[in-house]
Each structure stands twice: as structure tokens, then as C-alpha cells.
Write a structure and sequence with these properties.
By secondary structure, this protein is α/β, with parallel strands linked by helices. Helix content is 35%, strand content 21%.
Length: 424
Amino acid sequence: MTIEELHALFLAYPKICTDTRKISENCLFFALKGPNFNGNAFAQDALDKGAAFTIIDEEAFSTSDKTILCQDVLKTLQELATYHRNHCKAKVISLTGSNGKTTTKELINSVISKKYKTIATQGNLNNHIGVPLTLLSIKEDTEIAIVEMGANHQKEIEFLCNITQPDFGYITNFGKAHLEGFGGVEGVIKGKSEMYDYLTSHNKYVFLNADDQIQKEKLDSYTKKIGFSTSDHQYYNIKFLGIDPYVVLEAEGTRINTQLIGKYNFPNCCAAILMGKYFNVPLQDIKLAIEAYQPQNNRSQILSKNGFNIVLDAYNANPTSMKAALENFASMDSSQKSIIIGDMFELGTTASEEHQTIADLTEELKFDNVYLVGENFFGIKTSFNKFKSFDDLKEHLEKKPLEKGTLLIKGSRGMALERVLDIL
């Protein structure tokens, strides 16, 4: 079956499923493989549960005329996504960066959906499987699609751009994330800049933070760029007014009070405002969209529980985002500040050094109580409370409960530090 024929089938059955535990009636089941599973083995199960057709790449599992055999299921899914992306009329905005991708994506979607029919990456489905699934969620009447792209090694963003073929792109920042896979900070810059390489080589538009020196230098001679800045008047100007306790900013004399903590969220808001302006969303609608947006899923959430005011930022962490979170927390107006921070993953040979740097910064910021969790933090030199595992932390806090006050919780996803909420 050709991609054209498969696409015609997809239009008749426009639901994709890759997990037999989540089969919906009349979906297309793509039998993907992973390190510990072979989706081909579940093809018949998918049909039994109501799938219209299954796409497999091992002939031994071809059990009926509703089984479609291809050479490589994943590659076929990706090719189908690109074909569908070009079949539809939607303009595509691509988005990557070391920190703030998901928040920025959601802000952009909130703003642009005020005027257009949009779709956006669900959650953080931003890899070689998630990006195709996002593209396949584009409908005939979708006008703008916002596609988030994640990466932890070189050539990954290039690969995802070739699948997505974006009309516009934006890089949030270049930070100390996935250093192990990228081979250091310069590798991060090179890897994330693959989006610039794609956009400039295809003469597409680039959105940029003109206050970010790396972005500005990389796009210095490129003409199809649309930027924002707090000071450079050749770009769209947005003022940072402060934190109260959330980010407050001003565009064209209009004050916008966000529900986002941390100055690090200021450029994320600016990007959404800039794209809203480019797509002619009225400024009052932009203001309404940004002011209504509330972070979810353990990303800079403000919670209250049992006498604690909590900044829950436990979705993920790297040295750049950890430093920003700690400095922001230190600037907050509160009398009793405690932090529980967990290991930062994928740092390779720099792990010990980066964790020591964060511990040293924490000492300078002088919090009332500090708890470091994870094998990396446990191995550094510090006078703070440190625990090799979450269970060790839990045991300690159950014996010596934390003093009520303001609490920051932050760590990499694998640390799952949102579990702290259950033991306060």
C-alpha cells in the first residue's frame, strides 16, 4: 500500500492508536516496536478491540485482510504524518529549546486560538513518535498547528523538522539540558540551532528573542525574522514590569498580569504576544489569553496545602532551569523558605560538578531549610540535609516534619518529587 492509499484510509478512519490499552473504535493501530515490546504481537488484539485496520511490519502477524504490511511501521507513521501535513492547509509553527517549551507552546496556543482554529502538541509528545501524532491531529479546518520538538542529541531537531516542514519556528533558549547526549553546551546550541538551519535554508520565517545574544548573532544576516526585545527598537518592544508575585509586563501601553511565576517566564509570554501580533490577534484578546493561562502538570504551579505555600516545579530540571527557579524563589517575599530539590539527569561527566554548583548557589541564597534528594546530590560536599533516595527523604520528614511556610519543590522527571505533597 502506498502512502497516498494509506492516507486515504486515514481520512476514512482518522484516529491513530499505538497502544492496545487505549484502542478506540475504528482507529488505525500502528504496531510500533520498543526496547521491551513488539507491537506486531498485539495487532490481532487491536482488531479484536475495535480497530479498523492494523499496520504491521512482520508478516508472521498478518492475520486478516484488515492487516496492512509495510517495511517499517515507525517510518510509515512518519511518512504518513508528513503527507497529511502537506495535504492540509494549516500553517505550522515549530518550537524547541532547552527550557520552557511546553509552557510557551501552551501560551502561543492560548493566544492564537482566540482568532484561529488551532491544534497543538498534547502534553510533551514532542519526539519522533509524538511529532507525527501531532501532525496527524491536524484537521481539514485547522488553520494553525503549533508543534513542540524535543531533542537530546544532535540531528534530532533536523530530523523532526524534515518530518514537520514548518512555516515558522522559535527557539525558547539554549541551556544546560541533555548535556550527555549533546556533548556539552556548545553541542546544545548546535543541536537546537538545527531548527534555524532548516528554516533559513527553506526561506521560512523565524521568531526570535532579540535580547538573547546567541539567537541574535545566529540570525544576524537573515531577513525573514520577527523578534521581540525589551530595548532594541527595531523589534517589537515589551516591558518587564516586575513580579507581584507573578510576572507583570506591558505591550503597547497595555498592562498584562500573568499567572506565571519567575522572570524566566517573561520571554515565554513575549513569544506568545509576538506571534499573536504577527497573526493579527487583537491586543486585548492577547491580554485575555495570557492572563487566563494557568500552568499545570507540576510546572511552576502555586499550591496551598496544610499551611504550606508551595511552588511545585517538579516536571523537570536541568542546571539552567534549577538556577533560575532557585533565584526566583529567593526573591519571593516570604518569611520561612524551604526547598526540596532533586537530581538533574542526563548531565554525563559534568553531573557532579553541576550538582555541586547548584548546592553552592543554594548556600549563597540562604534558605531556611534545604533538602537535597538523589544519588548525585548525595555524592557532593555540602552541609545541607541530603538523601540518597526519595524513601530516605520520606522517612526523615515523617520523623521531623517540615516547618510550615513557603516551599519550592523541583527536580528531574525521574525523581517524581511531586510525591512530597503526600507527606507534608
